[in-house]
Design brief:
alpha/beta, Response regulator
């Protein structure tokens, strides 16, 4: 089955460019478009895309609020890929904090766009981990987030789960973590699932954000 994508951007040329790049791939299908975040929820309910590629800045409802609304109101929501003009942008970090799974620059090369959509759909690796670390260092609370610290304390991660979370924060995939720890991939998947459940995180991106903001992992 192809990865299905909904494009949300107020610029028609951006949507047309993304559609052309993605539909050139045999395993990706663009199932719909929207010009504003306000249209996302009804389209997601009707089309059930795997990934929503969404501009972070839009005139009526921006990508941050659209992400919050989508995750709050839709059962089994799709993965959310924020598409942005600027990499080092507080809006991008706020979108990640709101629940987005990763971000992509509008000037990205076609191969990078395709890779980002596939990676977000798979959910087994962190997209652009170095950039996420940079955003966390600049806009995160760097250990000063009491709520995040409380979540980590309540989670009571085992030593192995803590090690897995640190490797997740470095951007390692499940297969890379398995190789590093000399265990099977299924064992790593089990540890990742346990970490997400204990942290109450929707995915590894949210777990890593919590790790940075609690001070459990240093973003530098």
């Amino acid at each position: 089955m192809p990865v299905t994508v909904l494009l949300v951007d107020d610029e028609p040329l951006v949507r047309a460019g993304l559609r052309a790049v993605l539909e050139a791939q045999p395993d990706i299908e663009v199932v719909g478009e929207a010009a504003d975040g306000a249209a996302v929820i009804p389209l997601v309910r009707r089309l059930r895309p795997d990934v929503v590629a969404m501009d972070v800045r839009m005139p009526l409802l921006d990508g941050i609020e659209a992400t919050r609304a989508l995750l709050r109101t839709v059962d089994d929501p799709p993965r959310i890929l924020v598409v942005t003009t600027f990499e080092n942008d507080e809006y991008v970090y706020e979108a990640l904090r709101a629940g987005a799974d990763g971000f992509l620059l509008k000037r990205a090369r076609p191969a990078e766009i395709v890779h980002a959509v596939r990676l977000i759909a798979e959910g087994e690796s962190l997209l652009f981990p170095a950039s996420v670390r940079q955003l966390a260092a600049e806009y995160g609370d760097a250990g000063g987030n009491r709520a995040a610290r409380a979540v980590l304390e309540r989670a009571q991660l085992t030593e192995r789960e803590a090690e897995v979370l640190r490797l997740m924060a470095r951007g390692l995939s499940n297969a890379e973590i398995a190789a590093r720890l000399v265990v099977g991939t299924e064992t790593v998947k089990s540890h990742v699932s346990s970490v997400l459940a204990k942290l109450g995180a929707r995915d590894r991106t949210q777990a890593v954000i919590a790790a940075y903001e609690s001070g459990f992992v240093a973003p530098g």
